[in-house]
């Protein structure tokens, strides 16, 4: 494949979507970023946060911003070679989105999903282009983490796989290919760690800070499991566990009842200001 940079469509301005938009635009790709509402300023807020943290210079942001077209018009991504969806972890919603995209995009367009747990085949079989459907599971925060877990469905073509590997190398990611299976690799590992950490917290063995510190220092993790759960969203963590339990029927994936109670109470982590940590202080 040539090194010409493709035009990338990214759907969703949530935590993962913002990081993906950032990563592609920073590396010279033209990005069409589709959001749900005109007044959604989360992408701009993301870049301001990166500048405040010292991970991005104002001059860099000026250059990056020129690469991004932010819109609520889904048809604006019709001419993108690769489209990456980052909407909620719901099979029906993702399938409905792909169905809409079928009528907008030419047959050669690749449909990628950033799902953390839903089997790629469940979505691919609902399309007219299963060979063009693939999983691109990025790690959070995307603009910092090197790994992208590339999930090859049973129908995913070699051409689609090779294209996605090449494109991700162009944004300085390390692509690791895995087979289509519920939860793939990363989500199964992380979910069991987060779930066990939440059980330890519920049982009163240690406070959240202590659990995370032990995990960081004892396992050399960049961030503790409870802080990570707050970052990605406790609702997402719960959905992933429920999805794994539904697919495997293995009790090790049975979600901690405290985690479920927190989600039902609206304590979703950073995005609501409270999770295992209180971010309103």
UniProtKB/TrEMBL annotation:
What EC number(s) does its UniProt record assign?
1.1.1.35
| 3-hydroxyacyl-CoA dehydrogenase C-terminal domain span | 183-279
Enzyme category, top tier: oxidoreductase
- Molecular-function GO terms, alphabetical: (3S)-3-hydroxyacyl-CoA dehydrogenase (NAD+) activity
- Top-level lineage group: Bacteria
Keyword Oxidoreductase (UniProt): yes
- Which InterPro entries does the entry mention? 3-OHacyl-CoA_DH, 3-OHacyl-CoA_DH_NAD-bd, 3HC_DH_C, 6-PGluconate_DH-like_C_sf, 6PGD_dom2, NAD(P)-bd_dom_sf
Q: What is this protein called?
A: 3-hydroxyacyl-CoA dehydrogenase family protein
Originating species: Aquimarina hainanensis
